[in-house]
Structure formats: structure tokens, C-alpha cells
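Changelog entry

Holo records now carry the ligand SMILES as an explicit input line rather than a separate metadata file. Below, a converted record for zinc ion, shown in the new format.
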Amino acid sequence: MRKFPKSALAAFLLVVAGVGSQVPAAEPAKKSPGVDVAGMDKTIRPGDDFYGYTNGGWMQATVIPPDRAVYGGFTVIEEMVSKRTVDLIQEAGKSPAAHGSPSAMVGAYYAAWMNEDAIEERGLAPIRRDLDAIAGIADRKALARVLGGGLRADVDALNATDFYTDRPFGLWVAPDFANPQRNVGYLLQGGLGMPDRDNYRNTDEKAVALQAKYRSHVAATLKLAGVPDAEARGTRIYELERKIADVHVSRTDSVDVLRANNPWPLADFPVRAPGLDWGAYFEAAGLSTQPMLMVWHPSATAGIAALSGSEPLDVWKDYLTFHALNRASPLLPRAFAEESFRFYGTALSGTEKPRDRWKRAISATSDALGDAVGKLYVERYFPATAKAQAEAMVRNIVEAFGRRIDHLEWMSPATRQKARSKVATLYVGIGYPESWRDYSGLKIERDDALGNAQRSETFDYRWSLSKLGKPVDKREWCMTPQTVNAVNLPLQNAMNFPAAILNPPFFDAGGDPVRNYGAIGSIIGHEISHSFDDQGAQFDADGRLANWWTPEDLAHFQAVAAKLTAQYDAYEPLPGLHVNGRLTLSENIADVAGVAAAYDGYRSAYGKTPDLDGFTGDERFFIGFGQAWRSKERPEAVRSQLMTDGHAPGQFRADTVRNVDAWYTAFDVPPGRQLYLAPEARVRVW
Ligand SMILES: [Zn+2]
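Structure line, unchanged by the conversion:
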């Protein structure tokens, strides 16, 4: 479902911005097993504002903590998981684990992050080697070598839909579009310090103000590092980034896989994208033995390569110096971290103060040693009973989805059969992966926070390279168990539901199962339907990029999609700023389909259930759904989300119930209510 873009920048924001300030109790107070009645506002009519009806009380009572840009159901669980994780890590630290064992690594990574004195004392020493390498660039070949050596596996186009890297290019290793049995490398555009090309190109007052703040941030960071002429260099760095932004492909076009299907033999790069010494680049990146790479953004690849040949070498060196410092800032002396937060935390996200250091340390440890932390987490917090219950729910919803396909009037038998085989071969991972990743060989030191971070990034990159050309493991996970999220992996025809999202308010093993179906069940349905949405429908049962729809079926689907696009284009979260119906289309289709499949799953499992808390089963199902999307966001965060996030704001996700017939019956919604849609205007995809 991808609640948050898991980009390097987002991870970074998570590090500097993020979670609430008060240390929460490890476990939430035991509440009613049903819906959150106090969080509702029953003075609002559900047919006018379903989000307000289900969440009005919560919206009134909730204040976004000063260290958060967004606060909602996901945040509540993240807080709890952070607290649980820090306890586990501290326990791991106390028990005498063997040096180099996963739990010793986890303990050391966390300890190094927390050791501010050591970070302060070492100053720029941990990054000196990188800065010297950049300063030593004498010609274009050396520039290509440094750029290639800096390539990391820090993007993920289809699973995490993470298109952001601050490096000029990012690598994603994944199954080949044409031959999903083997892994290939996908090369994506990158190189910006702000999240999107539009941050550089927009000319409205807010955008121009942010551009000025970013330029000051670049200069301030250089000045802190003692770089002379910081202002003038900052201006030139900004101009280079601005040129990179101009050759970037838009976020909306980036999600179009048909534009991304560009296998380039390595030998073609100098011809198709001249300007960069690709031979030197690939050698430094460890890619020179690959027969080909998939080029996700061909025009941007050519554009960035051209800039690497045409822009003055000194400007590139300044640019690389700034980005090395900027990337490292959270783990450099305090002045760097504070400057970084001023821009990324406050200017970009509206956050007032940084997250507590221990929470940032937990996030960072969890990112770097995901499976090691995840194994500790599930052993303690994800009992077999919860796994079994969630698996049963998944089975029900997958079956319900299959039945919906059987009963689609518009779908031709040929397409239906292919869709059914896609359902049949789906792998659904619940809680944690089938096997754990091995971290042996990764060096983690208790007094080297930045070195640990860099070594773990390199370790991850080498691990990704080691998969190139190898057979694909369909059951490999792309999320850690302690991640509060869920994901569909189209090239593997697979889904992951990490243990951490299987918590209240989404899932309560001891709670009202009907509410569970409305909340996590709809999320499960959402992920299933991604296999069949505007993007997933382009991959067949084996994960191959193949058009398995008849032209008539595709035309019907596109007409329905256009209706949903228009429905979302009309939403206006901030004055003058609308939701982008096309950018959010996949997620909006998944939301409609997910709630419909979960509703069928609940009805087939429980039929008519007794009332609880004064609500019928159907009411609880939909209220559970609406409450899963509760979220308060700062306006800066909303602006950023509307530009780069494939998801609409939570309010509109909750309101998608207006497309579901059963919702009208459950709440007795007559024509004339604000959310009312005539039956023929409701969007039914699956
Ligand atoms: Zn999704």
C-alpha cells in the first residue's frame, strides 16, 4: 500500500523529522475490541463527510507532535514498534552476544548512533576520505569513476515505488520484464537534493521561497565544512541541480512501465547517452560484466550523462562535495545535523523539532540491519496465533477476489482465465520472510556511526549485485517485519504483510473480526488488487511484462479508470491545490477494489453478525475502514505529498466508500448527500 515513499530522502526525513516526542508506553492501553467510538463525530452525517463522521473526534483531540509532519494510524504503530525495538536492542546489548553475531551488530549499530560525543569529537574525519577522493578528481574519467563508485541500490521502481536518490543515478535489481525468472539491473534517474523536479521548476510563491531556502542550505553546509566561497559555489551547485531537474522525467511518467522497458546493451551507453565515460563508470560500479541494463528513464539518462560532460569539472566537484556532506549530516557533528533539519525537517516538511535521538537511532538500525532487528521483533511480538489468523483472513479475501473476477460482466473469458491464473499463483507472505538475510562480512563498530551507515549501504549494494543474472526467488521479501506497511511485488506476483502492520488500529488479534476486515482486510484487498490495477495488469501470472487483456477489456478498464481519475482530480485538500487523479490512480483503484473484496470476505466468513457498540456488522466494517485512514498532516507535508506521493491524503481514501453499494445501505445514504453518487456514477473496477 505504500503509505509513505520509502525514498532515501524519506528515510532521511524519518531520521531528522518523524515520530512524536513523548516516549510512549510500550503497549497501548486496552481499548474496546470494536471501533473507536470516541474518535467519531456522530453530529456529522456519514453521507456528507464519511471521514469526519468516523474520525471527527480524533481529529479534534489530536495535535500533531512538534517533531512530526504527519500523524495517524501508521504513526501510532510506529511509536509502539520503536519502543518495542529499543527494548529488544537494549536487552540484546546486555546479553553477552558473540562479536559479529546479528544481535551484537544491532547493539553496536545503535550504540554508535547514540554516541554523540564520539560523533562530535571525530568531526569530519569519518568523511574525509570521500571528500579527498572528490577533491582529487582531475579529469572526466576520474569524475565517471567517482560517480560509478557512488552508485547504490537505493531506488525501487515497482515494489516500494521509490524513485528518489540524491545520487545522479540509482540501481534497482529486480526480475527482468521480459524474463522474470532472472534478475537484471534497472538504472533510474537521480541527483537532486530536493524531492522532485517540480521543486526546481515551479514558479509559485511557495516554490520560489523553498528554492531560496535550499540555496541557503547548500551554502550553509559548505560553510560549516570550511569550504571557501560557499555562497558562490552554492549558487553554481543549485544551477547544476536545476539543469538536472530539467532533464528529469516527471513523477507521473515514471510510474508508466511501458516507458521504462528499455534494455540497453552496455556497449550502447556511450552512443545513446554520450558525455559520461561509461566504461569507467560501470567498472567502478561493479557492473562492467553485465550484458545489459534496463534504462528506466532513457531521456534523463542521456541528459545527465551530457551534463557530466558539459558542465565544468569544478562545479561537479563542488556538487559532489555538498552531497557527500548533506547525506552524512545526520551523523556528522551537531551543527551539520541541525542545518540539515532546518531544511529537510522544517522548510520542507513543516516539522518544528527533530525526533528524539533514540527513535532516529532505532529507525536507522532497523534500516541498516533490517532482518536482524526483524528476527528479534517477531520472536517476541508476533505469535503463531496472530500469523494463523491473518493468514486465514488473507485466504478469505483472495477467494472473494477470485469470485469477483468470476462474476465480472464486462470481462471476456480469455482475460478472466488469465486473471484467475494470476490469483492462483500469488505468493502472500505474512509477518516475516521465509528465510533471514545473512550479514556476515559486514563490519559494525561501536564508535563509528557514519562508517557503519556507509558500510551497510555498500554491503546492501554488493548483495544486490550478487543477485544479477541469478534466478529469482519469488518468496524474497522487500520489506522488513518491523515496517508498518504492506507491499505488492508485481514482478514476483507476490505480496508482503509485515508483522508490524498487523497491529491495532489495523488488526487486533483479540478484537472484533468485522472491524479487522474493514481495516486490515481492506488493506489486504488493496494489495491483492494491485496485481490487477492499471500497472499490475501489465504483468502476467509469471511476472512478465505482457499485455494479457483483450482490447475490449482494456478499453473498459481504461474508461472506468478515467472516471476515478476525474473523481480524485476534483478533491482540493488545500486552497487551489488538487489531488492529482492520474498520479494516484493505481492507489485509488486499489482502495476501491480492496474495500469491496474485504467486504465480500467478511460477509462470507461471518454473514450477519450481532451488533456491537450499537453498530451493525456492516457499519463496523466501514467505520473500521474509515478509521484506518485517519491522519493529520502539516500543510507543507500535504504540498509535498500531492507532488510526489502516489497516495491521496487519508481523508479521500476513507471517502472512497462512496463507490461501494453496500455503504449506501449500511448508512442509509439518500441522494443529495455530499458524497452521494448515483449508482451509474460509482466506480466499480473489480
Ligand atoms: Zn498501494
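Spot-checked after migration. The mean pLDDT is 91. The first strand starts at residue 70 and ends at 72.
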